[in-house]
Design goal:
The protein has 9 helices and 15 strands. The protein is an alpha+beta fold. The protein has 3 domains: 56 residues, Winged helix-like DNA-binding domain superfamily/Winged helix DNA-binding domain (Arc Repressor Mutant, subunit A, Orthogonal Bundle); 207 residues, Bira Bifunctional Protein, Domain 2 (BirA Bifunctional Protein, domain 2); 46 residues, SH3 type barrels (Roll). A hairpin with a 5-residue loop joins strand 12 and strand 13. Keywords: Ligase.
């Protein structure tokens, strides 16, 4: 009942929904509705009580809501799972890989052990952010898994841009709005006896956080869609749009092995091309000018000290903001 209850509350947001109305919709007693609300509250979701009714504190996505907009052949139609809270969707996939189909999509209101690149913790306050994993089991041997991060970043940039916001890609896996991080991508391969079994692509999007929801150390580096649009953000349509862009790019790449359709977006919407950035490789740091993105997905840069041109495959790239902070 949880997902459908959230769907009904979301449809009326920001107005409360009378308990009697919910009882009629679900053909159950008012007591059962109240018990379901209390179960959601116990997970950490904020649901207000008003005059014998209930109101969400902020919009929440739901499976019925996403399916209202979803128009894919594979991704999200082969399996669409929603967890209120979980350690991480990636861990769940790893532990249940044999029973999860190609194209399955897992979502969570909160991850207690979610992480980004290089093992960093991804801040995921319950009900205010999106955690999503896509499971890939069908891929050509000639496809380059390293390019899937940029394919996903391009799909996410296209979907986020539907909001009208200026969304840029910080190579290879971060999405920025006004030079603050709003989303990130993490691609991981799963092997068994050195044979590739699956690839999971995880994304995290900041949806309805206020500035105070972010840890102090990233206050000046992070933003949310609610902060940027100055209104509560409804994510059902965004999720469906992202899956549609992802499916288009993935199927085209699988068939043609040509990464140019999504790499061209990574170039056009780049936050780093033409910028001076700091590259971190192990314990070494160097300042470089970013010249472009190669057909291989590698970052083409010029070292400011040696003037040498080089390509980067997978490095930490820090973009300096006008206030001196780095993202």
């Amino acid at each position: 009942m949880h997902s459908h209850l959230i769907f009904q509350l979301n449809k009326q947001f920001p107005n409360p929904v009378p308990t009697e109305t919910l009882s009629q919709q679900f053909n159950c007693s008012a007591t059962e509705i109240t018990e379901a609300v209390e179960e959601l509250r116990a997970l950490g979701l904020v649901i207000h009580s008003y005059n014998s009714g209930f109101q969400l504190a902020s919009p929440l996505y739901s499976i019925p809501g996403i399916k209202t907009y979803l128009n894919t052949q594979t991704f999200g139609t082969q399996g669409l799972y929603l967890f209120e809270t979980i350690d991480s969707t990636h861990t769940y996939v790893s532990n249940n890989l044999s029973t999860i189909d190609h194209g399955s999509v897992l979502l969570a209101y909160s991850q207690t052990a979610g992480r980004g690149r290089r093992g960093r913790k991804w801040s995921s306050p319950i009900g205010k952010s999106l955690s999503l994993s896509i499971v890939l089991k069908e891929f050509s041997a000639d496809m380059k898994p390293t390019l899937l991060t940029q394919l996903t970043a391009a799909a996410l940039q296209q979907a986020l841009s539907e909001t009208g916001l200026p969304v840029a890609i910080k190579w290879p896996n971060d999405l920025l709005i006004n030079r603050r991080k709003v989303a990130g991508v993490l691609t991981e391969a799963m092997f068994e006896r050195q044979v590739l079994q699956a690839i999971t692509i995880g994304i995290g999007i900041n949806l309805n956080q206020s500035q105070s929801d972010f840890p102090t150390e990233i206050h000046t580096k992070a933003t949310s869609l609610a902060l940027e649009t100055e209104s509560p953000f409804f994510a059902d349509k965004l999720i469906a749009q992202f899956l549609q862009y992802f499916e288009q790019f993935y199927q085209d790449y699988q068939q043609s092995l040509d990464p140019e359709p999504f790499l061209s977006i990574c170039r056009q919407e780049s936050a780093v091309i033409g910028e001076i950035v700091t590259v971190v490789q192990g314990d070494k740091r160097r300042d470089v000018e970013v010249l472009g993105i190669e057909a291989t997905g590698e970052l083409l840069v010029r070292d400011l000290s040696s003037q040498e041109q080089m390509t980067l495959i997978s490095s930490e790239v820090s973009l300096r903001n006008p206030d001196g902070s780095y993202i």
